[in-house]
Write a structure and sequence with these properties.
The protein is α/β, with parallel strands linked by helices. The chain is built from seven helices and seven strands. It has a single domain, classed as Aconitase, domain 4 (Alpha-Beta Barrel). The protein has helices at 30-33, 45-49, 60-63, 84-91, 104-113, 156-164, 167-174, and strands spanning 16-23, 69-71, 96-99, 117-119, 130-134, 139-142, 147-150. Strand 2 (69-71), helix 4 and strand 3 (96-99) form a beta-alpha-beta unit. The relative contact order is 0.18.
């Protein structure tokens, strides 16, 4: 059963995200995530999300289901600082992005829009593998291979931002940017 992308608890620290893996390689740029030829759609993000990752996998949007995972290699999200890139990944229904490493700006933009990003070993994850991610426990369970992949759990402030739905929602909820541990 896949997590629903509009579930406000989808990014909550104790939630379990479940879905299938869509595997991409190293150096997936923001241009591959959010093709420049659709720049005119940047004010219509739901429409732009229909084209997410189409230059990396033209069938991605038609095959993925809400709750599925994007799995990358090294340096996921490199390139320009298009905040549209993580936003349209989230709007497409992807529950989280797993990669060996992320471009710094993409990583921060993802957290800010409420998209969980997990740094972990993705080498043994294959396309279609059934995954379960528990953010608070720092583990990815590959149900297809019966393997557990550990990762460093996100800091409390990041899991709070994710559970609130992103940085803007967090500030609206708390009236400020809360850095205290709860």
């Amino acid at each position: 059963m896949n997590s629903k992308p509009d579930d406000p608890q989808a990014g909550a620290p104790n939630s379990k995200l479940k879905g299938n893996a869509f595997k991409f390689g190293d150096d997936i740029s923001t241009d591959l995530i959010c093709p420049g030829r659709y720049f005119h759609l940047r004010s219509n993000l739901p429409e732009l999300a229909k084209h997410v990752l189409e230059d990396a996998d033209p069938k991605f949007v038609s095959r993925m289901k809400p709750g599925d995972f994007v799995v990358g290699g090294k340096n996921f999200g490199l390139g320009s600082s298009r905040e549209h890139a993580p936003t349209i990944i989230k709007l497409s229904g992807v529950s989280a992005v797993l990669a060996r490493s992320f471009a710094r700006i993409f990583y921060r933009n993802a957290i800010n829009v409420g998209l969980p990003v997990i740094i972990c070993d993705t080498d043994r994850i294959e396309p279609g593998d059934e995954l379960e991610v528990t953010l608070s426990e720092g583990k990815v369970i590959n149900r297809t291979k019966d393997e557990t992949i550990p990762f460093s759990p996100l800091p409390q402030v990041m899991t709070t931002i994710l559970s609130d739905g992103g940085l803007v929602a967090h500030i609206n909820k708390h009236g400020d940017f809360e850095l205290t541990e709860s």
